[in-house]
Amino acid sequence: MSQQRRTGTAPELALRRELHRAGLRYFVDRPPIKGQRRRADVVFPRQRVAVYVDGCFWHRCPEHATDPKNNAQWWADKLAGNVARDRATDATLAAAGWRVVRVWEHEDPQAAAEQIVALIRRNQGSTG
């Protein structure tokens, strides 16, 4: 597991390229709330939007999740913990007034970026 990239994955880079191409500027690999240990992949602090690019295996994608055969119970607990942590992060950020966008690694980066751009544009209008 230590060999897994935590940031700068291909799906994340593709999404960031599309966001940049759309004229958005953002922070990368940063906690949305100061002092929080959980980091978002892309953060728009003024608009209070945090974007996470989730891997299908690690975050249990409903379409592509697989169950390892070896050490099955350990993996089931590990992956369930990841999902529970994701939901807790979503709830914490929502309670603090943040919008959370979750993008699966298999999603089209251009389509995902278009949704994020629309959300950012709406939030820019309300934040001044």
CATH architecture assignment: 3-Layer(aba) Sandwich
The value of Rg in angstroms is: 15 Å
Number of helices: 3
User: Within the largest sheet, what's the order of strands?
Assistant: 1-2-3-4
Structural class: alpha+beta
**Overall domain count:** 1
Determine the fraction of residues in helical runs and give it as a percent range.
40-55%
**Could you tell me how far the N terminus lies from the C terminus, measured between alpha carbons in angstroms?**
43 Å
SSE string, helix = H, strand = E? Answer: HEEEHEH
- Average pLDDT for all residues: 92
CATH topology: Endonuclease, Chain A
Q: Unreliable stretches, pLDDT < 50, 5 or more residues? A: none
CATH class: Alpha Beta
Descriptive report:
Belongs to the Vsr family. The chain has one domain: Endonuclease, Chain A, CATH 3.40.960.10. It is α+β, with helices and mostly antiparallel strands and 128 residues long. Strand 3, helix 2 and strand 4 (99-104) form a beta-alpha-beta unit. Strands 1-2-3-4 form a 4-stranded mixed β-sheet, sandwiched between helices. The chain contains 3 helices and 4 strands.
